[in-house]
């Protein structure tokens, strides 16, 4: 069974930092690109970042503040979030294109990040 389990969300003040983790199981983690996607309250999904063998790519909204990384030995992808802003408040999901169909077809349950003073 494929599972993606996120953790690390919480309440943080503007300017603060959080590190999200996503532990994967049920597939060969090292073979897959891994993405982070977020959904702010009342809004649609926003792609945040992707990591693959070639490196990492970021949405303009988080570039320079967020860093994605992975540990293939631990089947884990991370999202280090610095200089957080209230507009970063969202549920953060890790996801992957498991079936290689050009779409994210495996998702975690999400972890809530709230940036507020």
Number of strands: 11
Q: What's the helix-strand series? A: EEEEEEEEEEE
The fraction of residues in strands falls at: over 45%
What is the number of helices?
0
The level of helicity is under 10%
Overall average residue pLDDT: 96
Radius of gyration: 13 Å
Structural class based on helices, strands and sheet pairing: mainly beta
Largest sheet: 7 strands, mixed
Q: Uncertain spans, ≥5 residues at pLDDT below 50?
A: none
Termini separation (Å)?
40 Å
Shape: globular
Structural overview:
It is a single chain. The radius of gyration is 13 Å and the shape is globular. It has strands spanning 3-7, 10-12, 18-25, 34-39, 45-52, 55-58, 66-71, 76-81, 90-96, 106-107, 111-115. 0% of the residues lie in helices and 51% in strands. The strands form 2 sheets. Strands 2, 4, 5, 6, 9, 10 and 11 form a 7-stranded mixed β-sheet that branches. It has 117 residues and is an all-beta fold. The model has no long low-confidence stretch (mean pLDDT 96).
Brief sketch in words of this structure:
The protein contains no helices and eleven strands. It has strands spanning 3-7, 10-12, 18-25, 34-39, 45-52, 55-58, 66-71, 76-81, 90-96, 106-107, 111-115. The radius of gyration is 13 Å and the shape is globular.
Descriptive key words:
single chain; 117 residues; four-stranded antiparallel β-sheet; globular; seven-stranded mixed β-sheet; mainly beta
């Amino acid at each position: 069974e494929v599972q993606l389990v996120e953790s690390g969300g919480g309440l943080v003040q503007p300017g603060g930092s959080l590190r999200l983790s996503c532990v994967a199981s049920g597939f060969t983690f090292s073979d897959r690109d891994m993405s982070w996607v977020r959904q702010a309250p009342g809004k649609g999904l926003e792609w945040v970042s992707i990591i693959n063998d070639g490196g990492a790519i970021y949405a303009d909204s988080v570039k320079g503040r967020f860093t994605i990384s992975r540990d293939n030995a631990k089947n884990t992808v991370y999202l280090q979030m610095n200089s957080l802003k209230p507009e970063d408040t969202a549920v953060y999901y890790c996801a992957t294109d498991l079936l290689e169909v050009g779409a994210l077809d495996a998702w975690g349950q999400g972890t809530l990040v709230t940036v507020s003073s």
